[in-house]
Each structure stands twice: as structure tokens, then as C-alpha cells.
Amino acid sequence: MLRTQKLGEADRIITILTKRTGKVRGVAKGVRRTTSKFGARLEPFTHVDLQLHTGRTLDVITQAETLRPYGEALAADYPKYTAGSAMLETADRLTLGEKEPALRQFLLLVGGLRTLVEGEHEARLVLDAYFLRSLAVAGWAPALESCARCSATSVRAFAIVAGGVVCAACRPAGAAVPAPETIALMIALLRGDWPAADASESRHRAECSGLVAAYLQWHLEHGIRSLRHVERV
Amino acid sequence: MYEGVVQNLIDELGMLPGVGPKSAQRIAFHLLAADPADVKRLAHALLEVKEKVRFCRVCGNVAAEEECRICRDARRDDHVICVVEESKDVVAIEKTREFRGRYHVLGGAISPIDGIGPDDLRIRELMTRLADGRVTELIIATDPNLEGEATATYLARLVKPMGLKVTRLASGLPVGGDLEYADEVTLGRAFEGRRLLDV
């Protein structure tokens, strides 16, 4: 479940990222009533097994079974809740078309939410790893080990417009010059090297978050509203 | 499409929540057929509500004066504040006749995905009310959905260091429902909050 919007007296429009059909929007009738048969099953973050009846404009949700209720654990931990919200919003933005299969984005989101709930790694690290990998799945993986323009291995700066790290010769005006440890952290997050990511220092994590957020929003051509509220522990 | 003024009325009615184009048309024709005095009374009520109703400076509830009826009532318990999302939640709780304390209306719930953070709610005003030390218990009665729970978590984290008792409304099975239709989260909460039968 990606997001919900109120509709009429007691209904909700639910946006779902599905395993086989991609993003789907459906109506859950009467879900806001306390006696609703759906109860907490149709809350954002919940991994559900759904049955939908195809409608004219929107599908109608007829049955829902919970597979994993990630929302409950996330709502009880504010930094995780804000990080998870940014993940849902990004998944919504990266899957533009409705009913276009997006299996890798689906698996990445479910894996990301599970990692966030398990709490083995800092929420902000999980969020940045999710951003980097979802961008990679969408075809916008940043170049991190060699110059994005000439493939030179001696890199100096990070240029969002160039698509990642750049060498001194290719460096455009206004490119950021992050610490080498920050680039190493980004590589670790993209590869899923958690021991290296967990060992990183707080200042490099902050720098990494700033670069990843700017890179993500530049490619999406849209701000991620949740990012303003993401809380660092 | 109808003549100018009729279409204007249908368009304006169609802007109301839960009113679609067909309903708007039905209401418009009902008003056209209605007694002019009834329509004038409705128009007057609409204007009056915008002119006279404001938000209570203490709790944020809708009020006809500077302070709402509940904040002006000296018989209410000053030691307990119940935090709700909207004014309509105050009405729902008042109907139970179980609560005699004061209220605080936040004006919504924290929802980062909709761009609503703690600074967009009346949390700062709540902290100011709690600062005088008179309040001993804060009851968090935000909606039992994800945004409401996250808002409750945020408030509890903020208020607990002040030494206040922070409580949350119980969640569980709705009265009059069947157990088999309860979802896993609700049923789990009902088990967590089970109580001893005192017979």
C-alpha cells in the first residue's frame, strides 16, 4: 500500500504497488468506518493480498488479507515512519504509469520496508540505500567509481547533472566536492555492503544523504515532500 | 448546461465534499422549488457561519467567541487534556459523556507524504498549555490509523520528558461486530489490551 486519499463520506482511494500489475488505484468502500471489514489492512506500508473488481475508472477492492503489517512497527518509531514515508512517495513517483509491471521496484520496496522495520541499520542509511537502488532500477544509477563523462578513475567531485562523480577535467561549475569516505558510503549502500555502511561516520552519512536526495529529486524532476520531514536520529 | 445563475449554483454546490454533479443538480433544483424564506434562512446561516465562527484561542476547537464553550466551562477538569485531530472528534467524544477534561485540537495528523509535518499542526500551542504544570494527564485520541498512530508516537516522545502521564485511547474490536471479520492488527491490539473480568 503506497498511499490513501479520502473519498466521500467513508471511502478511500488506495494506491497500491503490485507484484505483477505495477501501480494500481482502487476504491475501498466504507474503509473509514470503525466497523469496516478491511480494518487496518488497507493502511499505507501494509503488504497485502488483494482482490479487486475491475471498474470503469477505478478498480474496487473487494477482499484484503494482510501478509506483513509493516505500518504498525513504523508508526511506533517516528524516524522510521518518516523514512518509510519517503520510500513510499519515491516508489509512487518512480512508477509513473498505472498497470505497468514494475516487479523490481516492488521487490526493492518490500525489502526496504522489511529492513527498516527490523531496525538493524539506521533508518536514514536504509532510506539512502533504497533511493540509490531504486534509481539504479529506474536506469539512473549514479557513476560512483569512475568519471561519469570520461571514465577516468581519478575522481574529484560529484556532479548531479553529469550523472555521478567526475574527474578534475570534466568537473562542471558548481559540482560538490564530497569526502572520499562519502563516495565510499554511497558505493556500499548501492552494493548492499552493510558492514561498511554501518561503520561510516555520522558526518559522511549526512553528506551522503544530502547528495542522494538532490540526485533523486533532480532525476524525478519533482521534490519529494516527505524528505523535508525525515528525521535523523 | 443551464442558464448562467442556475449553472453557477450547480458548480458551487459541486465544490462541496461528497457532492457530485448529479447531487449538485438535485440540490439546485430543490432550492429553486423551495420557499424563498427557507432559502434565505439557509443563505443567512452560510454567511453567519463564516462571519461569526472562529477557532478557540486556547484549544483550537470551532467557537462562536474568543474561547469555545468547553474552555469557558469552569466545571471541566483542568488536569486532563484530550488531544484530537479535528473539531468533529470533540463532538464524537462529548457524545460519550465519559470525559470531563479539556481538549486540544491539532488540526490534522502528521503525514509526511502529504507534506504535513509537526510544525503544520498546533503542537507548539499544546506545549505552551502544558508548560504551566497544571495538567497531569494527556490523553492522545488521534485517529486509530497510521497517521494518527505516528502523531501519537511523536507527541508521547515530546511530552513524556515533562513528567506527564501520557495515555492513548484503547483500540480493539468494535462493539456489535463479528470476531472472524476483525483484521490481524485490530485483533492483536484487542489481545494486548484485554482486561480482567470483574464478576
TrEMBL record, chain B:
<dbReference type="Pfam" id="PF21176">
    <property type="entry name" value="RecR_HhH"/>
</dbReference>
<keyword id="KW-0233">DNA recombination</keyword>
<dbReference type="InterPro" id="IPR000093">
    <property type="entry name" value="DNA_Rcmb_RecR"/>
</dbReference>
<dbReference type="InterPro" id="IPR006171">
    <property type="entry name" value="TOPRIM_dom"/>
</dbReference>
<comment type="function">
    <text>May play a role in DNA repair. It seems to be involved in an RecBC-independent recombinational process of DNA repair. It may act with RecF and RecO.</text>
</comment>
<dbReference type="GO" id="GO:0003677">
    <property type="term" value="F:DNA binding"/>
</dbReference>
<dbReference type="InterPro" id="IPR015967">
    <property type="entry name" value="Rcmb_RecR_Znf"/>
</dbReference>
<protein>
    <recommendedName>
        <fullName>Recombination protein RecR</fullName>
    </recommendedName>
</protein>
<keyword id="KW-0862">Zinc</keyword>
<keyword id="KW-0234">DNA repair</keyword>
<feature type="zinc finger region" description="C4-type">
    <location>
        <begin position="56"/>
        <end position="71"/>
    </location>
</feature>
<keyword id="KW-0479">Metal-binding</keyword>
<dbReference type="GO" id="GO:0008270">
    <property type="term" value="F:zinc ion binding"/>
</dbReference>
<dbReference type="Pfam" id="PF13662">
    <property type="entry name" value="Toprim_4"/>
</dbReference>
<dbReference type="Pfam" id="PF02132">
    <property type="entry name" value="RecR_ZnF"/>
</dbReference>
<dbReference type="GO" id="GO:0006310">
    <property type="term" value="P:DNA recombination"/>
</dbReference>
<keyword id="KW-0863">Zinc-finger</keyword>
<comment type="similarity">
    <text>Belongs to the RecR family.</text>
</comment>
<keyword id="KW-0227">DNA damage</keyword>
<dbReference type="Pfam" id="PF21175">
    <property type="entry name" value="RecR_C"/>
</dbReference>
<dbReference type="InterPro" id="IPR034137">
    <property type="entry name" value="TOPRIM_RecR"/>
</dbReference>
<dbReference type="GO" id="GO:0006281">
    <property type="term" value="P:DNA repair"/>
</dbReference>
<feature type="domain" description="Toprim">
    <location>
        <begin position="79"/>
        <end position="174"/>
    </location>
</feature>
<dbReference type="InterPro" id="IPR023627">
    <property type="entry name" value="Rcmb_RecR"/>
</dbReference>
